[in-house]
Amino acid sequence: MASKNNETHIMRIMKDIREFYREDSHQMYAVAEEDDLTRVHALLIGPEKTPYENGFFYFVLKFPKDYPLKPPSVKLMTTGAGRVRFNPNLYACGKVCLSILGTWSGPAWTACNTLFTTLLSIQSLMNEKPYHNEPGYEETKIGGKGGKFKVFESLGGRNVGDAVRNYNDIIGHETLRVAVIDMLTEGGADARNMPPALRNVMISTFKQNYHYFEDTIRERQSMDGQPMTDPFRDHQRPPNFQYKDLLAKLLKLKAHYQIGDVRPSGAALSSPGAASVLTNGCVASASTAAAAASTAGGPSSTPELIDLTVDSPVRRPADDSPVDELMEPYLKKKKKAVEMGESAPREPKANEPNWDEVINMMNDEEGELDEYEEDTDSDSDTGSHSSDQHMADPQP
């Protein structure tokens, strides 16, 4: 009997994780559970210039046994203990409405989708105007090519520019309240089950971006006490903006994590950067500036830059501080994972069919392929028969 780690879906998940290392995507992290690779925890950092900017959105993915023919189930954990709907597609109960997940109409899942493309699709929901994610509230371009965008509701024909701004104000407030302050507060419900490796990334990123959070909250103090006018009538939110309270809580976090008043220099330090994978407790990030080096409640340290354009497993500090030895296991693991993933074309093995010839014949005459199969059938040791070469299209 094949071991559990040799099952087809497990092998595909491992392949997805290896490929995730090689992607150069922005602000995405993931860690698979050590004793169950079918459960993957992911942390998405809210994209810049959106109401979700620098927020910490924690997801749990569960991959089925028929993956990749069927999609994983995904649940958003950053919900204010089930009270905050962050998007028309991100429900307070944790449901993620996305067509490739089979939870909404539209393009269906295909076996070509991966862990990376799934997380990227979810991150795309966190855009500059999430109001328009609601069906019937989409932006419509008028005036042909080069025309301007004009926004109308599907019913009533009224301009909803104010509704877009009001909704952005609410999501921006809730991002700071729930996706930042609550996520970083010890004992918070949403982050209770977050793996330690992901939590270290979150804390490190919070430290790097702390001054952005404080500046933003201070700039919005004039909104304190004003009513939240939610166009979707979500009554589980606070009735009013609470920026004075948020500032007090943020300053407590600043003291708890021992964050100094000196601001880091250099734009490269404002966010972690590229896609990351963390497995078996190792932090894996293409630009995680001190993600593993910073520990919960530890002293603030000078942010560091990681150069992964070279093979040397050495971290590049921004100053003369010692090289972070905690990053060396990740760099070695990353290099090993890529090598095991055969990222470069491998040499044909002995007695292996010439697959280019097989593919050419499949695109040519069926009779020739049948003749080829009869020839290869006589050699029982070539391993040329593989039922997993033929995959049925997944059902929507």
UniProtKB/TrEMBL annotation:
<keyword id="KW-0808">Transferase</keyword>
<keyword id="KW-0963">Cytoplasm</keyword>
<dbReference type="Pfam" id="PF00179">
    <property type="entry name" value="UQ_con"/>
</dbReference>
<dbReference type="InterPro" id="IPR000608">
    <property type="entry name" value="UBC"/>
</dbReference>
<feature type="domain" description="UBC core">
    <location>
        <begin position="8"/>
        <end position="169"/>
    </location>
</feature>
<dbReference type="GO" id="GO:0006915">
    <property type="term" value="P:apoptotic process"/>
</dbReference>
<keyword id="KW-0539">Nucleus</keyword>
<feature type="compositionally biased region" description="Acidic residues">
    <location>
        <begin position="363"/>
        <end position="380"/>
    </location>
</feature>
<protein>
    <recommendedName>
        <fullName>Ubiquitin-conjugating enzyme E2 Z</fullName>
        <ecNumber>2.3.2.23</ecNumber>
    </recommendedName>
</protein>
<feature type="compositionally biased region" description="Basic and acidic residues">
    <location>
        <begin position="387"/>
        <end position="396"/>
    </location>
</feature>
<keyword id="KW-0053">Apoptosis</keyword>
<dbReference type="GO" id="GO:0005737">
    <property type="term" value="C:cytoplasm"/>
</dbReference>
<keyword id="KW-0833">Ubl conjugation pathway</keyword>
<dbReference type="GO" id="GO:0043066">
    <property type="term" value="P:negative regulation of apoptotic process"/>
</dbReference>
<dbReference type="InterPro" id="IPR016135">
    <property type="entry name" value="UBQ-conjugating_enzyme/RWD"/>
</dbReference>
<feature type="compositionally biased region" description="Low complexity">
    <location>
        <begin position="293"/>
        <end position="303"/>
    </location>
</feature>
<keyword id="KW-0067">ATP-binding</keyword>
<dbReference type="GO" id="GO:0061631">
    <property type="term" value="F:ubiquitin conjugating enzyme activity"/>
</dbReference>
<keyword id="KW-0547">Nucleotide-binding</keyword>
<feature type="region of interest" description="Disordered">
    <location>
        <begin position="293"/>
        <end position="396"/>
    </location>
</feature>
<dbReference type="GO" id="GO:0005524">
    <property type="term" value="F:ATP binding"/>
</dbReference>
<dbReference type="GO" id="GO:0004869">
    <property type="term" value="F:cysteine-type endopeptidase inhibitor activity"/>
</dbReference>
<dbReference type="GO" id="GO:0005634">
    <property type="term" value="C:nucleus"/>
</dbReference>
